[in-house]
Amino acid sequence: MPLKENASEIRESWAGLSKRLSPNKHYDAHSTCCYVFWKGTLMLRGIDPLLGPELLSCLRAMGHGDEIAIVDANFPAAREARLLIRLDDASAPRAVRAVLSVLPLGTFVDCAAFRMEVVSAPEEIPEIAQEFQRIIRESDATVAPLGALERFAFYDRVRQAFAVVATGERRLYGNIILKKGILPPDQDV
Predict the structure, then answer these.
(1) Are strands 113-116 and 147-149 parallel, antiparallel or unpaired?
(2) Which of 10, 64, 102, 133 is catalytic?
(3) How far from each other are the two terminal CA atoms of the chain, in whole angstroms?
(4) Mean pLDDT of 53-60
(5) Is 30 tagged catalytic?
(6) Which of these, 156, 135, 126, 109, lies nearest to 48 by C-alpha position?
(7) 27-41+48-179 maps to CATH 3.40.1650.10
(8) Domain ranges in the chain?
(9) Which of the four pLDDT bands, split at 50, 70 and 90, describes residue 38?
(10) pTM for the complete prediction?
(11) 3-state secondary structure string, 32-73?
(12) 167: closest CA among 79, 96, 80, 104?
């Protein structure tokens, strides 16, 4: 796609997202899907290039306590999302790492991140969930361990999430919910 057409598409998508993120707007699963295919490079220092304008705007608009789900390719994201952002070329761990590079996790809660339990084996912790835990620990060592939710409880929680980031992750159970925390006034931004 020529750069001019791509830039035009991005501007139109950005304008549409801005309208949808109005604080007085009620979000519903069918009218607020936003499909993002970001292939360019960001011209900003210190920002992971995976974080395109729609995802950055979404993360900025979230308040403390709001949640964002990052899900695998098998997750019914279009059906469950209030706001859907697609990162089809990224793995779920890569998306989690990018999001946590700018998003503080909640510290005033018992658990600020949740994975989906394995059906029929809730005590099993898949390798991808262990990878999520390592990324969270690298991001903020003070955050509590990754919590687990039964499959349908996880779906219910995703429906309440501020946004869903659908990745191209092919491994099963590559789904996580992150709760946004706060930036204390004395912390560097």
Answers:
(1) parallel
(2) 64
(3) 36
(4) 96
(5) no
(6) 135
(7) yes
(8) 27-41+48-179
(9) very low
(10) 0.78
(11) CECCCCCCCCCCCCCCCCCCCHHHHHHHHHCCCCCEEEEECC
(12) 96
